[in-house]
């Protein structure tokens, strides 16, 4: 009777099988570290010059701008002083790349037809734009899905959405932020600080937008 013939070394095969999971684990760890470095390292670099941000509303329009206790330091709310509160255009404050365009939290049920509907959570429909040099702007509580998509290149003054009251919002308005990396900072418009730096007390003022064609430099 012929016996089965084996070639190679069974023990070495077992060692190779044991090494494979370790190799895959090592590759996975390296991949995770590379991904973390890709996200974190840019945030450690010094920011670039502040862009010449403009108000995120139409050229020549005057809006109520302000904050209130519990709103969040440096957060700014925009309320229109003329026309319908719902649906007014929201414009990009400066040119950049859209990095977020979707839903933050939940939408709730406040609409022009049902303005007292249930509140949602978070920012509702929102957009985030990367302006380079670690500078970002955020636009929250939009009426409907944003008019831009992730990866879109936008120019200053381009419409990205409409005023609404989605998310945790009591009335139609735009919640707006300027950020350097992960850090919120005081909003500047047309080269001037807004003066909204904290939410210790209610604070409102009226500002006129210079988000006009050719304003960006």
SSE order and pairing:
Layout: H1 10-44, E1 62-67, E2 76-80, E3 89-91, E4 96-106, E5 121-132, E6 135-142, E7 153-154, E8 159-162, E9 174-180, E10 183-185, E11 188-189, E12 192-193, E13 203-208
Antiparallel strand pairs: 1-2, 1-13, 2-9, 3-8, 4-5, 4-7, 5-6, 6-9, 9-10, 11-12
Describe, in plain words, how this protein is organized in 3D.
With 217 residues, this protein is of the alpha+beta class. The chain has a domain at 61-209: Glucose Permease (Domain IIA) (Distorted Sandwich), CATH 2.70.70. It is built from one helix and 13 strands; from the N terminus they run αβββββββββββββ. The chain has one helix at residues 10-44, and strands at residues 62-67, 76-80, 89-91, 96-106, 121-132, 135-142, 153-154, 159-162, 174-180, 183-185, 188-189, 192-193, 203-208. The strands form three sheets. Strands 1, 2, 4, 5, 6, 7, 9, 10 and 13 form a nine-stranded antiparallel β-sheet that branches. Strands 3-8 form a two-stranded antiparallel sheet. The protein is globular. The termini are far apart.
Strand composition percent: 25-35%
| Helical residues, percent | 10-25%
Report how far the terminal alpha carbons are from each other. Answer: 91 Å
User: Roughly what is the average pLDDT, rounded to an integer?
Assistant: 88
Per the principal axes of the C-alpha atoms, what is the gross shape?
globular
**What is the highest CATH level, the class of the domain at 61-209?**
Mainly Beta
Q: Radius of gyration, rounded?
A: 25 Å
- The CATH architecture of the domain at 61-209 comes to Distorted Sandwich
CATH H-level superfamily of the domain at 61-209: Glucose Permease (Domain IIA)
**Secondary-structure element pattern, one letter each:** HEEEEEEEEEEEEE
Domain M23ase beta-sheet core: 87-185
Transmembrane segments: 20-41
Organism: Micromonospora zingiberis
GO molecular function: metalloendopeptidase activity
